[in-house]
Design goal:
heterodimer; A: about 150 residues; alpha+beta; Beta-Lactamase; 5-stranded antiparallel sheet; B: about 70 residues; 2 helices; about 60% helix
Chain lengths: ~150, ~70
């Protein structure tokens, strides 16, 4: 009986966590539609510089606007970033016929992270074994801040 | 004669550090390339390198790694 009670309690916890994750993502999806405005290039460059300071493993990154244009990039080849990021998102969206929110690809040469949030997109390349959750969190925060203040937030 | 308390603590901390270092070494050796996509509502999907979708993702990732270049030290 005690085992049954413990199992039931565990199930409830898992269900709550699942519901929380589901609802949180739902909120972000709504925010994405609400705040799809392109920030200016200076802000994007400053945000990218800050990301570089926070992530020691970062080799390069780019921020793309709602239309796919590069707002800021760490190297002097914005056209390459635009094309290659577009190819990555196209491959990700085509993989299961559904738009992917985040992409993480680990290769022998390095790791690639891509995220779409608030109508913007960011792509980052790091050394191997970078802390994925931390970097994706930083990238998401960066895009959300660039997109502008969220209604109800200070 | 029992060890001094700070010795016990130091031994324990260095033991944890050794365990962590060993875990990281194993992870570096055993971790294989992967392509993982995350979707809304928390779903994620792995795509093998030899699948069509996985191959496309790895090619696109390779191009991005190329454009990013090496880290400036």
């Amino acid at each position: 009986m005690a085992k049954l009670t413990a199992a039931t309690a565990q199930m409830a916890t898992v269900m709550i966590q699942d519901a929380r994750a589901r609802d949180t993502v739902g909120i972000f999806t709504q925010m994405m539609d609400a705040a799809a405005t392109a920030p200016d290039r200076e802000s994007a460059e400053a945000a990218l510089k800050f990301l570089g300071e926070m992530s020691v493993d970062l080799r390069g990154a780019a921020i793309l606007g709602p239309d796919g244009d590069v707002l800021a990039a760490t190297s002097e080849t914005p056209e390459r970033w635009r094309e290659d990021a577009a190819a990555l998102f196209a491959a990700a969206d085509g993989a299961e016929g559904e738009p992917a929110e985040q992409v993480h690809i680990a290769t022998e040469q390095g790791e690639v992270f891509a995220i779409r949030n608030a109508g913007l997109a960011a792509v980052a390349v790091t050394d191997r074994f970078a802390l994925a959750s931390l970097l994706l969190f930083d990238m998401r925060s960066m895009l959300r801040e660039l997109a502008g203040p969220v209604e109800g937030a200070e | 004669m029992p060890a001094k308390p700070h010795r016990v603590l130091l031994d324990r901390v260095s033991g944890y550090a050794d365990e962590a270092a060993a875990f990281m070494r194993r992870r570096r050796i055993s971790r294989r390339p992967f392509a993982r996509l995350y979707y809304p509502h928390g779903r994620s999907a792995d795509h093998a390198e030899d699948s069509r979708s996985g191959a496309e993702l790895f090619v696109a990732a390779g191009r991005l790694i190329e454009v990013a270049g090496r880290k400036k030290s």
